Amino acid sequence: MANFLFVYTGGAGMAQTDEERAASIQEWTTWFDSLGENVLDAGNPFTGEAKSVANGGEVSDGPVGTMATGYSVIKADSLAAAVEAAKSCPQVKGGEVTVYETFNII
């Protein structure tokens, strides 16, 4: 099995009411539960703050490319299997999930 980084972009942001937040948390919890022990790091949402550091140390406000809104790390048998898991992620209802395969070098 390999590890995969799910990078979340877009979406409606945080739910506004307590009921909406509870429903959202339940939806994510159900999805993570469906992945079972394949969830290595459920991750967290990101704030709207980002800085980019370029070659030579130049710092700019904002991200490189599209602002990410959160992440998770899972393990799966293949990139195709990780993508299949991402299809049922609550994030895809209003945003997107980019799936990256990782590998150990250290």
At the first level of CATH, what is the class? Alpha Beta
The global form is flat
The fold-level CATH name is Alpha-Beta Plaits
The percent of residues in helical segments reads 25-40%
| Discrete helix count | 2
User: Which strand order does the major sheet show?
Assistant: 2-5-1-6
What sequence of helices (H) and strands (E) makes up the elements?
Answer: EHEEEEHE
Q: Characterize the main sheet.
A: 4 strands, antiparallel
Q: Uncertain regions: pLDDT < 50 for 5+ in a row?
A: none
Strand content: 25-35%
Could you give a short description of this structure?
The chain has 106 residues and is α+β, with helices and mostly antiparallel strands. The chain has helices at residues 18-35, 79-87, and strands at 2-10, 39-41, 51-53, 59-61, 68-76, 95-102.
List keywords for this structure.
single chain; 106 residues; alpha+beta; Alpha-Beta Plaits; 4-stranded antiparallel β-sheet; 25% helix; flat
Structure description:
The two termini are 17 Å apart. The chain has helices at residues 18-35, 79-87; strands spanning 2-10, 39-41, 51-53, 59-61, 68-76, 95-102. The mean pLDDT is 94. It is built from two helices and six strands, in the order E-H-E-E-E-E-H-E. The protein is α+β, with helices and mostly antiparallel strands and 106 residues long. The protein has a single domain (2-102), classed as Dimeric alpha+beta barrel (Alpha-Beta Plaits), CATH 3.30.70.1060. Strands 2-5-1-6 form a four-stranded antiparallel sheet, with helices on one face. A two-stranded antiparallel ribbon has the order 3-4.
